[in-house]
TrEMBL record:
Similarity annotation: Belongs to the cytochrome P450 family.
Gene3D superfamilies: Cytochrome P450
Keyword Glycoprotein appears in the UniProt entry: no
Name recorded for this polypeptide: Cytochrome P450
InterPro entries membership: Cyt_P450 (IPR001128), Cyt_P450_B (IPR002397), Cyt_P450_CS (IPR017972), Cyt_P450_sf (IPR036396)
Amino acid sequence: MERQQHAKLDELMRDPYPLYARARRAEGLTYVPELQAWLVARDADVREVLRRPDVFSSANAVRPDTVPAPAALAVLSQGQDPSGGPRRRVVVTADGPAHQRLRAPLVRGLSPARVAAVLPYVTERATALVDALAAAGPGARGGPRVDVMEAYALRLPGQVIGRVLGFAPEDVPVVVRGGHSSEQLLFRPLPEDEQIAAAHDTVALRRLLEGYVQDRHAAPRDDLCSEMVTSLVPDDGEPDEADPEADDTGPALTLGQRAELVAHLHNFLLAGHLTTTALIGTTLLHLLRHPAQWKLVCEEPERIPAAIEEAARYDTALQGFRRVTTRAVTLAGTELPAGAEVLVGFGSAGRDAGRYERPDVFDITRTPVARHVAFGLGAHGCPGAQLAREQLRVTLELFTRRFPGLRLAADGPPVRMRPTLIHRAPEALYVQW
């Protein structure tokens, strides 16, 4: 029975769009047992939820799809706050003033000026990855295939977010590996040995982040890690007697403070590079599935911004976040009691015929492009949306110029989407040129 449930959930997450279509046609909201939540599928209803954070709380915005095995949990306990403190609230699970406080350093650190300042680095790293791709890849039609997810999409966003945070380049592989392992551990059923390996990667990431937290607390720099640490040190009372590392920079962080700051950084990393990795993968996938549109964007690169927005609308990386009602409320004619869980379907909203013409058609030439909710809306709108868009813009400019003959590999395996509503992307994307 449990295996059947996993298989059904796996199928739903690999292709949720049939469910979305049924839910948009239905009266009211649709309860989805596999997700244990009411699905908010229509664009107007999604926007209503996002604009009413006082009624639809983010306290349970992200809930794991799986529970790690005891052996994996034992490994994870090595990287947790030894004081046994409460579950750490992070920006995506906070509301009201607490959310504003947690979000503020991200908004400052990802401001238009900060994004503009990091763009030369984005271009430099993207160019280096494309050079390596060209050197190792097919090079001619009919040559061997290459997985562009592994060779490019899984690499660039991690390098960029590491730069924004101020991490040393040699630490970025630990960050990227730990981020992906953390996500897989919580959102994808894995064999126990793979769970244990993922747990070790997660612990290694937490320990790395704790080192950065302590370093930036003692000696802040001009980077986002320092911005977060200096802005978000929680008022945790007196320093721990067991950890009295105080010096002329002030009292040392307590164990609880360190754990909370590590949680903030960990959460930001998952959102900061995994979403962009996914968006690069899905954008390339849909452009290559429509060769005429790939040819058009190669010939008319001024269409790249529209291609980015169409890809985000058509198949957004983040399919949805959960919300929980703070009081009884009626939404789309459905009466919800206090404490009801809803899944806000960003991916479904992008396919709503009430807002978009021919919503199930991928078309980079559609005009006018109605504003989508792929990056959220309102108080919880993604503060890193512009950085993600810029990385995708640089990617498409380079790929269309260097690989105008890019196509899906003829002898490659069928494209399979990852079985998750968090960071939806191809598991692998084999291409040739």
